[in-house]
Amino acid sequence: MAKLTGTRTFEQVLAEIERRIILSGLRVGDRLPGERQLAEELQVGRSSVREALRVLETLGLVECQVGRGPNAGAILTYDPDGTLTDLLRLNLSLSSLTMREIIDTRLMIEQWSAGQAAHGPHAEHTRAMTAALAAMDSAATPEEFVAHDMAFHIALTDAAGNTLNSAIMRALSNTLRHYAVEAVHRLGHTADLQADHRLIHTAITTGTPADAVAAVTEHLGRAYPLATPM
Amino acid sequence: MAKLTGTRTFEQVLAEIERRIILSGLRVGDRLPGERQLAEELQVGRSSVREALRVLETLGLVECQVGRGPNAGAILTYDPDGTLTDLLRLNLSLSSLTMREIIDTRLMIEQWSAGQAAHGPHAEHTRAMTAALAAMDSAATPEEFVAHDMAFHIALTDAAGNTLNSAIMRALSNTLRHYAVEAVHRLGHTADLQADHRLIHTAITTGTPADAVAAVTEHLGRAYPLATPM
DNA sequence: GATCGGTGTATGGTCTGACAATATTTGGTC
DNA sequence: GACCAAATATTGTCAGACCATACACCGATC
């Protein structure tokens, strides 16, 4: 193995795995060689291979399973949400980020998504929004309400058709979950929020992009009073 | 150590380190205990501690240095750019993301940032933008031009005051660097781009938010013809 | 032939001990 | 006081061993 890029062994393993993924045209669902085999092929210790796999797992690129058979070992996957959620949580713990910034970024993504979605949303996503609306109506607890509220807003983001934004939005939602549950507790009721949701849904399915953006801005301003409208 | 959350040992180490960071109020710049000490305190093997540290390093939360003294060991840091850049690059390799999505997300962030920045940018960032403009004027190669172009757009994002968006923008810029260099090569000149840049700068310092958004939209539409204006 | 059950085995997960590489600290010498 | 050599603390790496897990295989039984 070339000793060129990166002095640490596991970084070279990382680069080599990345190279193989590109060269071999591996796709999500495909399997990587076992740790022992990789270690022997690359002439490195198994611990270096393991550290490289840990990095790939952290980046949401592989999932590791023990045992035997076609599902065992390191399998290529696609889960940036987990990485981003961890990233946000830990940087909040370190006070490198503020809740305010997270809320503002969410507002940005939802405004943009609403505008895009209003151009021509896929039925799949508007159906998911409708289902979430009904589920929120019959939610018995704030926790349950917020779970479906998250689904609604994620479906709205998905409707814009940008998977990167969707991944970021999922991570933001995960991070804001507790915050949102508390907010619903304080509010005591969800009628206003649901009215907003229905306005958003209507604007996206039958209104103009400007209507959709306005509806989202109005709603998030109510749900997160700190947020500054653009 | 409690065996409650997560079956894998290194995940428990991860949780314990995170708990200590929160409880001890550790901040960026502070040092974590050494690998051996952590292993003994938590009654786990050193390899488990190392895998946990590798995860934290991947998430841009710690940097590890060998040797002795106050700078050795795992030091808390703040570098989400690196994580996000890796995330984008690897997901592009796996075709889980498209260049188009990255460009659209960049457009979204810059539009939002321009609107926010026009409300009242800090002198620090407008100065950085001015410096980048001058550097672009005297750039001898497309590579050099793009380096300062990135600095300009990052300064614009910084001017909006959201560090999360700035981190995402940095990662997006890193990912688009090659693409941008090729685009400048094809274009053959940079006069139009610089004219756009000056319009953006003027709009942010003396114009309305709507002017700033329009200037950014116009510019990115020219630089990345694929991008769909909102 | 089909089904059930036990055994084998490949795989990740972990620990231990050892050594190498590196950067600082320490102490001795001029 | 300045400079150089040795001690030391730290991460980086490897090798080997063992455990837990989940499937594969094969034989016995119906």
From TrEMBL, chains A, B:
Domain of life: Bacteria
SUPFAM superfamilies in alphabetical order: GntR ligand-binding domain-like, Winged helix' DNA-binding domain
Positions of the HTH gntR-type domain: 7-75
Keywords, in A-Z order: DNA-binding, Transcription, Transcription regulation
Presence of the UniProt keyword Amino-acid biosynthesis in the record: no
One Pfam family from the record: GntR
GO terms assigned for molecular function: DNA binding; DNA-binding transcription factor activity
Listed InterPro entries: GntR_C, TF_FadR/GntR_C, Tscrpt_reg_HTH_GntR, WH-like_DNA-bd_sf, WH_DNA-bd_sf
Keyword hit for Plastid: no
PANTHER family per UniProt: TRANSCRIPTIONAL REGULATOR, GNTR FAMILY, UXU OPERON TRANSCRIPTIONAL REGULATOR
Protein name: GntR family transcriptional regulator
Organism per entry: Acrocarpospora corrugata
